[in-house]
Every structure is written in C-alpha cells, then in structure tokens.
Amino acid sequence: MEGRIMGFIVFCMIGGMFLCWAVYTWFSKKPKPMGFWANAEMFEVTDIKKYNRAVAKLFGTFGVVLMVLGLPLLAGQNSAWTMLSVVGVMVESIAAMVVYTIVIEKKYRK
Q: How far apart are CA 17 and CA 24, in angstroms?
C-alpha cells in the first residue's frame, strides 16, 4: 500500500515542480527568455514576454499531465495500468520536445 502511494506522491511532486516553474516563467520580470534545453545556447527571441508565456503553458501542461499519469500507480505494482504511467511519461516528454521545437521555437525565433 505504501509503495503505491509513494510512487504517486513522487509523480505529484515532480509535476508540482513543473507547475511552480510554469508560474515563475509566466510572471517573470526578467528581460531574458526562459530556456528549455539544458546547457544549450538560447536563440534570439522576437517577443520575450509572449515566448515566456508559451513556455509557461508548456511547462504547466506537462506538470498536470504528469500528475494524471501518476494515478495508475495507485492500482498497485503488478497492475497492467502501471505501464500506462511508464509509456505515458515517455510519450509526454517526446511530445513536449516536439511542441517546443516545431511550434514555440519556430514562432519566436528571430
């Protein structure tokens, strides 16, 4: 019982961190665009405020979906539903990268 709840709590904590990051990005007063890739040089942005809002929406959506994907962990370790969590996180991560690259970066790159 405790393992199931612990797994769900971990998913919620990580999703909550993404939500906090989204709120920080949304209300950021810095005249600097929020980076998406780790250790990558940031490109020039046409409208920093709109770019940061788009990235904040992406982070917020990612966090909420991550929390929802943690729900199948409550069914138990040997449940087939746990595969939904594992595969769902992989698909969600790839989808976030695709949305950032194809939609956000293309729209706001100078």
A: 10
In this structure, the chain runs to a length of: 110
Residue pair 52/33 in contact (Cβ under 8 Å)? The answer is yes
Mean pLDDT of 26-50: 85
Please say if the pLDDT value at position 1 is more than 70: no
Q: Among residues 56, 39, 29, 42, which one has the least CA distance to residue 109?
A: 42
Q: How far apart are CA 107 and CA 23, in angstroms?
A: 21
CB 109 within 8 A of CB 43: yes
Quote the CA–CA distance of 70 and 15 in Å, as a whole number.
9
Asked whether the beta carbons of 36 and 55 are under 8 A apart, the reply is yes
**Phi, psi for 27 (deg, rounded to 5):** -100, 15
Question: What is the distance between the alpha carbons of residues 25 and 51, in angstroms, rounded to a whole number?
Answer: 10
pLDDT tens digits, one per residue of 26-37? 998 888 888 887
- Mean residue pLDDT of the chain comes to 90
